[in-house]
Amino acid sequence: MTDTTGTLDEALERLHTSGPERKGWLTNHAPMAVEALVRHGQAATVHRWLDHYADKLEELPPPHAPVTADGWREALGDPARITDWTRFFARELAEHPWRAVLAAWWPRLLPGIAAGATHPVIRTGHAVRTLLASPRGATAPRLAELAHALGYWAARHQPLPPLAPLAAAPTAAAALDAVPLVPERDGGIRHRLAQLTAFPVWGAAPDPETAKARLVELVAAATHRYATHGHGEPVMLVHAATAPNAVLRALPALPRELWAPSLSAAWAASAAVTAAYAPAEPAPYAETPVTTPEEVFERAAAHGDDHTIKFTDTALDVGGPLALAAAVRSVELNAPVFR
């Protein structure tokens, strides 16, 4: 669905005076949530949702020194340079086509896909989808959103620790089931990711089309798995699905030679979130009456939680009864914003 109301551009302009984080680490989810709301026919709810979210917004952090084309490596992964990076990408996008900027920076940023608990790549996926779907072309607010997303990713760039290969898994679902859980599970995501040591071998692709097909498989497997495992950590485990889906959304805008490495990075992100937060045992979930995707998203929008909205958006991309059941499960597990 494309936005013919102008609401998304209005919302993005409203948000671009805010930084991508609050309280030094927590992510600003508003740009991603409003994009999903508009895409699924909920444009009329966007400004009310933003009014409720406004207390969670902070101003952009102060700049330090400009990021340059020659000296960018020294600024990579420095969260104090968020505004510097955002301004750098704004300049790049003013001087070059957005697809060219994305293609140049995607392989540089991809090794740090775990940055910011995977939120920067998720925000990038939403921004790319917005640009690809824009009936009026690349509007200024949508280009600015890509600059904010890429700037956040570059500033929070965080490679995973070296990982040993475990036995190969035949499917994405089997691979997720075989991911070893981190032993210390009472700290934040950075503490948990530092404990990663090994993942099952999965996701190699001999050609771009196979890479795309396996990425579709991974998104579906992680979405379905939330129905039985989301109780382990209902907020954080949505990212096992939404992070690889963000990569999938970016593929149409990327050169095909980047599709296979994109699959590998998406698998690492999904496996990392699974290792960090998945419960040791699945739990049954209640079967819900058959309903439509539109009804499920309306329920998520009425619930109002940003993670629930974004996960339901991904579940609708996957489609089918189990994905819709997983979306309903996220509504049940996460605390509602609107009561």
Which short descriptors sum up this protein?
4 strands; single chain; two-stranded antiparallel ribbon; mainly alpha; 15 helices
Q: What's the alpha carbon Rg, rounded to whole Å?
A: 19 Å
How is the largest sheet built, in terms of strand order?
A: 1-2
Largest sheet: 2 strands, antiparallel
User: What is the CA-CA span between the terminal residues?
Assistant: 28 Å
Mean pLDDT: 95
Q: Kindly name the structural category.
A: mainly alpha
The total beta strand count reads: 4
Beta-strand percentage range: under 5%
Shape annotation: globular
Low-confidence stretches are: none
Number of helices: 15
Tell me the helix content: 40-55%
Topology order in helix (H) and strand (E) letters = HEEHHHHHHEHHEHHHHHH
Report what the structure shows:
It is a single chain. The chain has helices spanning 7-15, 30-39, 46-53, 82-95, 98-109, 119-133, 140-156, 172-177, 189-193, 208-229, 239-250, 259-277, 293-303, 306-318, 321-333, and strands at residues 21-22, 26-27, 164-168, 198-201. The longest helix is centred in the middle third of the chain and has 22 residues, at 208-229. α2 packs antiparallel against α3. It is mainly alpha-helical and 339 residues long. β1 (21-22) and β2 form a beta hairpin. The model has no long low-confidence stretch (mean pLDDT 95). The strands form 2 sheets. A two-stranded antiparallel sheet has the order 1-2. Strands 3-4 form a two-stranded parallel sheet. The protein contains 15 helices and 4 strands.
